[in-house]
């Protein structure tokens, strides 16, 4: 039995006044992914009672989540990582939380995948964030804090409990410790936007040596582009 909750387009779209002109605001739509029906319904009631988005569908497993994400393109997808995802799914990429996140994002690249955790495995959650999860909400927080976090997420600000944020930064710092002092210098300069030629001049080394350092850095950190290097340096606190 499908757990989808598809709703018709609202006949009262959100509007705002600007110089006397009615301006439509983007709809805030939500997909809920949770195995337990009772929890799904409780979440839907909470969101709609407090005006934190329109629930356009609810999924009980990964396969449904990917299908409904593709059909509805929700603004936010709420996921309980503590649930045993993969039940009844025979596709290898759907057997893990990370696989589920990838499936949702492939179906709806713009959706923000938000994990709602009670006592999830910290390492698994950190891996899920690195795989593309946008934010994490601790369901043990006071209701006011949860609602505030949801509002921030809709507004484009990721929310992260302090314990998970610390674990992420600690993990990045451990990776950085594997870099040589010279590689750390190169990474910092790349993150600040310096070209290979400028870095070579500043460090009194050849451009080819800079390129070699960059290749080594990217291999050690598992990064492919300059944008990823910049994001990594920001997350690790190397630059501001």
Automatic annotation (TrEMBL):
One of its GO terms (molecular function) is DNA binding. Keywords: DNA-binding, Phosphoprotein, Transcription, Transcription regulation. Residues 172-237 form the HTH luxR-type domain. InterPro entries: CheY-like_superfamily (IPR011006), NreC/VraR/RcsB-like_REC (IPR058245), Sig_transdc_resp-reg_C-effctor (IPR016032), Sig_transdc_resp-reg_receiver (IPR001789), Tscrpt_reg_LuxR_C (IPR000792), WalR-like (IPR039420), WH-like_DNA-bd_sf (IPR036388). Gene3D superfamilies: 3.40.50.2300, Winged helix-like DNA-binding domain superfamily/Winged helix DNA-binding domain. Residues 29-154 form the Response regulatory domain. SUPFAM superfamilies: C-terminal effector domain of the bipartite response regulators, CheY-like. PANTHER family: NITRATE_NITRITE RESPONSE REGULATOR PROTEIN NARP, TWO-COMPONENT RESPONSE REGULATOR. This is Unannotated protein.
């Amino acid at each position: 039995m499908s757990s989808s909750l598809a709703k018709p387009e609202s006949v009262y779209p959100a509007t705002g006044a600007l110089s006397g002109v009615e301006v439509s605001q983007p709809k805030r739509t939500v997909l809920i992914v949770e195995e337990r029906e009772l929890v799904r319904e409780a979440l839907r009631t909470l969101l709609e009672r407090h005006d934190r988005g329109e629930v356009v569908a609810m999924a009980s497993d990964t396969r449904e989540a990917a299908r409904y994400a593709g059909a509805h393109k929700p603004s936010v997808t709420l996921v309980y990582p503590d649930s045993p995802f993969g039940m009844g799914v025979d596709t290898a990429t759907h057997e893990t939380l990370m696989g589920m996140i990838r499936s949702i994002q492939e179906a709806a690249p713009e959706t923000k995948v938000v994990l709602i955790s009670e006592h999830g495995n910290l390492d698994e959650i950190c891996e899920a964030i690195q795989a593309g999860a946008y934010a994490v909400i601790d369901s043990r927080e006071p209701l006011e804090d949860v609602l505030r976090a949801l509002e921030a997420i809709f507004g484009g600000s990721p929310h992260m409990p302090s314990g998970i944020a610390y674990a992420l930064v600690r993990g990045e710092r451990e990776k950085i410790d594997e870099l040589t002092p010279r590689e750390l210098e190169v990474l910092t300069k790349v993150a600040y936007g310096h070209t290979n030629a400028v870095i070579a001049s500043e460090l009194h080394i050849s451009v080819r040596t800079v390129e070699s350092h960059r290749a080594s850095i990217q291999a050690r950190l598992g990064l492919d582009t300059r944008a990823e290097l910049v994001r990594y340096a920001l997350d690790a606190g190397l630059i501001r």
